[in-house]
Amino acid sequence: MKKIPEKFLPIGTVVMLKGGTKRVMITGFCAFANEEKKNTERKIWDYSGCLYPEGFISSDQVCLFDHKQIEELYHLGLCEDEDSEEKQFKKTLNKIIEETNNFQETKIKNKK
């Protein structure tokens, strides 16, 4: 089993999710969706993906998941060491996530 690096994994990475039976290929980052149990609250998922090797079939078959749900790494997509554009994108993405988390924490504290 390959060691799972810290998030965010590159586009094209193929993983198995905990409890999964089918591999998933990462196709995007930070997808918004309503949580299943709470239709009014939106969640930001770390990744969006599609079944592997089938690929994107339809919009109602997109897989949304968080980094902590990844159990096994099968293939690492384009490595950030090889692509400066991806490095900059991930730096910006992590900054946005941090700002969003800080905003949500402030919002929760203000409700109390």
SSE blueprint:
Blueprint: E1 14-17, E2 24-34, E3 42-51, E4 63-65, E5 70-75, H1 84-111
Antiparallel strand pairs: 1-2, 1-5, 2-3, 3-4
Notes on the structure:
Helix content is 25%, strand content 30%. It is α+β, with helices and mostly antiparallel strands. It has a domain at 14-79. The chain has a five-stranded antiparallel β-sheet, with no helix packed on it. A hairpin with a 7-residue loop joins strand 2 and strand 3 (42-51). It is globular. It starts with 13 loop residues before the first strand and ends with a helix.
Question: What shape does the CA trace take?
Answer: globular
Give the number of helices: 1
Mean pLDDT: 82
Strand order of the largest sheet: 4-3-2-1-5
Radius of gyration: 15 Å
Beta fraction of the residues?
Answer: 25-35%
Number of strands: 5
